[in-house]
Amino acid sequence: MELSLEEIxxxxxxxxxxxxxxxxxxxxxxxGAGPGEISFFAGRRYRDAFRKTKASxxxxxxxxxxxxxxxxxxxxxxxxxxKTANLFASPVPRYxxxxxxxxxxxxxxxxxxxxxxxxxxxxxxxxxxxGVILFPGVFVGDRVRIGKxxxxxxxxxxLHECLIGxxxxxxxxxxxxxxxxxxxxxxxxxVKIPQTGIVQIDDHVEIGANSCIDRAAFxxxxxxxxxxxxxxxxxxxxxxxxxxxxxxxxxxxSGSVNIGRGVLMGGQVGIADHLEIxxxxxxxxxxxxxKSILPGGVVSGTPAIPHRLYLKAVSLMSRLPQLxxxxxxxxxxxxxxxx
Length: 339
Prior knowledge:
CATH class of the largest domain: Mainly Beta
Largest sheet: 11 strands, mixed
Helix content: 10-25%
Mean pLDDT: 95
Structural class: alpha/beta
CATH architecture of the largest domain: 3 Solenoid
Low-confidence stretches: none
CATH topology of the largest domain: UDP N-Acetylglucosamine Acyltransferase, domain 1
Radius of gyration: 26 Å
């Protein structure tokens, strides 16, 4: 595949500085790019690679006179690169139609242009939308509904009555709709609370490999439109994740947490149950959240505190031995004066 820089610039609302007719055959990073490829420059820490790049063209935010490569000036080079990379990305492989080695219940509904690989199971009264791709080992439980053009990679389990929207991507090994972890103690034993709700995943959500989203005890666990979950994320029962939120790897969210729109969570964040995380909040990696966070709040540490306060506290840690020695010296001098 080849595209001219003029075509690419039109796609990303950019301005070409140099040969608009230059043909581009692929994308790459600054260090790895070669002739015919386009890359992007989006930060001072890449300045050295930027000077040495062999790329034929580079997305830049501001025109760079010293660069020999053709430049495409755009407001956001990384976004322009992402849009261009999608043009050159290889299409997802599709099985031609529905495999005879898939097990599909007679009462299910299968849409048009569906790709169902061997080894897929589709249960009673399940509905599979147009253009869906189900890779080997996918289990679709009874009365599950999957929207059009959704992509489900190998060995994903979608249990009974869960709802999956359109253009969702679920990566390998995920479990959607397993029982929430709900028990009541009866003396020395634990009595299971039936988990009678569902999981609802709205359109344009992406869920990383080996993540688990538990069904609700009642009602629904709800992942709203455009949310992105990384690998190995645990979402407990009755959690709500707002539109456009980003959850990085190994995050664990306890039951009945309500997460607002556009929330960002770093890796290995842990959130206690029944909390409210406001719109636009940011939670730093490995933070332990035990209290609700207001909209726009930025927190770090365990227990999580405002990020600026956390930075001040961390800056003191390396000085604690010195401060402790000074305190002991002061105590000793006070005791001598009292004597």
